[in-house]
Amino acid sequence: xxxxxxxxxxxxxxxxxxxxxxNALTDVSFSLNEGEVVGLIGPNGAGKTTLVNVVxxxxxxxxxxxxxxxxxxxxxxPYQAARRGLxxxxxxxxxxxxxxxxxxxxxxxxFGAGAGSLGDARDMAMQSLExxxxxxxxxRPAANLALAARKRLxxxxxxAMNPKVLMLxxxxxxxxxSEIDGALALIRRIAERGVTVLIIEHLMKVVLSLSKRxxxxxxxxxxxxxxxxxxxxxxxVIEAYLGAKFAARLxxxxxx
Amino acid sequence: MRSGFPLxxxxxxxxxxxxxxxxxxxxxxxxxxxxxxxxxxxATSWNFIGGFTGYPSFSTAAxxxxxxxxxxxxxxxxxxxxxxxxxxxxxxxGFAALLGGIILRLRGHYFAIGSIAVVELCRLVVSxxxxxxxxxxxxxLPLMAWPPEQLMRFFLFVMLGILLASLIATILxxxxxxxxxxxxxHQNEDAAxxxxxxxxAYKIAAYTLSAMFCATAGAAYASWTGYIDPTDSFQIVMTxxxxxxxxxxxxxxILGPALGAAAFVLLEELFWANFLDWNRAILGVVIVLLIFxxxxxxxxxxxxxxxxxxxxSAKAEGGK
Lengths: 256, 320
Hints:
Chain A is of the alpha/beta class. Helices cover 41% and strands 25% of the residues of chain A. In chain A, helix 3 crosses helix 4, helix 3 (101-112) runs parallel beside helix 5 and helix 4 crosses helix 5 (147-160).
């Protein structure tokens, strides 16, 4: 569990979000420590993307507090979140289609990281592109990239913003298994740079291989928060999400 | 990066052609040149919000008309002409910034309709506020007791000055953080906010820039004609014309809108002169054809050729 010496970088305290009469998030509280890689799982419609939208200011929380470095950021706009270092990727990739790959990433460096000049921003962008392995496609229009490359572009753009917390909303959706392995290696290297990462995923393989800690959302409520091994054995989580079959297989693996 | 030299050369050549008309042509041609310069400035202004940012604004006539009225009222109260134009520019820029904060919350078609409503609203307010604006009777401005040639030449240079100022502003914006941010907003506004662009502030800046030069042109136009009234100052037709000009030349490019304005004004003059009964219909057909077959605008013809040449040489260099 959380040791008191580590300062949480992002802390949610009783956050709720209602759409009319629908409770999308109910009293969600957790904190992320600096440099941690945490997985956020839950069935479809559990409120995972809503949670990210609330943290980055795309949606305004109905109640509760969102603390970033002990500062209440519950009312921030998306651009303010970006400048503070709360970066995210979208489930459906959001490039600037007519711009080149390099220009896309330059936008992140110029506005998100606050690069001094266009030239500096371009240098930072090039570094991000090299990091994700897209430097060879720098001059291609973003619209021409295949899905795997577009997902990498999203990552490069977020990285160029010099984020403190990076929220990855299903970056692996729609990728084949070899592409997923590449993406996993990349996310690991991002975490090694000290960026706090929150991974939202459907694929258990991905979450379990990356994060030691898991959060589980179910019908907008946080039903579990703890070490991955404990979470996948938790009765409620199994019921809500994994299904008995997977849990049984897992038990066999662990005891067999 | 765009290469700067051909751009500047084309710009200077175009301005010189317009500026030298008094040397060899009659007053009709000089007047046409002044009108080209004026519409060039209006279309170049529209480009900030419509071209760079991708917000289809139809407010041009509102800014033009308000500029005309602010300038006229100042001049009638004894403020010298140049100062009156400056006051009109600043006042209307302030008005656009305040208004932008409200209507730029709308997107796409909704924004287009909202921006048209601004023109009508301004016209109604101006024609109702008789104590200040003279209502439907309009306003007379102090006449300039100059011979017609001299007057014509003077306003040609004034309009060229406004056009030049708007072009310089365009070049500066294009190369700055602001221009880059506006292009990002055009491509994908949500993604632009997510990379840290204060989209509201950027859109307001673009809208204000698009209003400023229209106001100067409006105030200068009022001094030029010596009389303004609400229906003439706030014309929906003008608003639509300016958008068509910018699209015709190439929205989002630097010289495109001014070029489109020149082409449009010349075509319009040609059809007025030769086909009095059919001129509007012919003009309409020409516009439809151009937009169907040349959606990138006139400038895309030359740009394409240059691009092809550039990529050709790059491939040769790469040798792969």
